[in-house]
Amino acid sequence: MNYRATFIRTFGALACLICLIPLPYSYSELVLDHSPKLVVGWIELVQILPENILLHAKIDTGADTSSLNVTNLEEFVKESKQWVKFTVTTREGQSVNLKKPVHRHVRIKRKGAESQRRPVVKFDLCLGNILLHKTQVNLTNRKNFKYNMLIGRSFLKRHAVVDSTNTYKHEPICIKQ
Questions:
Q1: Of 4, 68, 109, 162, which is the most buried if we count CB atoms within 10 A?
Q2: C-alpha to C-alpha distance for 174 and 177, rounded to whole angstroms
């Protein structure tokens, strides 16, 4: 008896059967996204439009939502809707007072501290040549942190990848509206 031939036939039949087993993913889900993405450093300049506020931002892939350092945060009701007023101050000392409708509230888990409920507002944000309209940003006092803003995954997805060995790879070049 030719054991080698029997083994090859058995192995071939088994391989054919395995190919017939449906995979849990469709082919399109297995194909990598090859659309061009902006490669950003772990620190970048971000511009808030149309207010034209330029901020130093840390790119944080561990955060889902972007976060902005604000002071004088105060919630109020306007025309039966929840609003917030707050002050944004750049590293260079420029202060801008803003009022925005609250889109929602988010609970942020903080390492070594109690979770925090924060208002979320929408901004048009520009990083390099990426302009995302109505980006959700939670507001908090980040006075003890080095960077005014964190850019989270919801901004980065489908648009950018992070090169953690670089900083300040791009100037915001979006058209002011």
A1: 68
A2: 9
pLDDT digits 0-9 by tens, 123-160? 999 999 999 999 999 999 877 788 999 999 999 988 99
The residue whose two tokens read 């007023």 is 85
pLDDT at 28: 37
Q: Which one, of 149, 153, 156, 167, lies nearest residue 47 by Cα? A: 149
Q: From CA 66, how far away is CA 59, in angstroms rounded?
A: 9
Q: Residue 50: is the preceding peptide bond cis (ω within 30°)?
A: yes
Predicted confidence band at 76 (pLDDT cuts at 50, 70, 90)?
A: very high
Q: Can you give the pLDDT at residue 174? A: 86
The DSSP result for 23-61, as a single string, is PSS-HHHHS---S--EEEESEEEEEEETTTEEEEEEE-T
d(Cα 48, Cα 30) in Å, to the nearest integer? 36
Tokens of 1: 């008896």
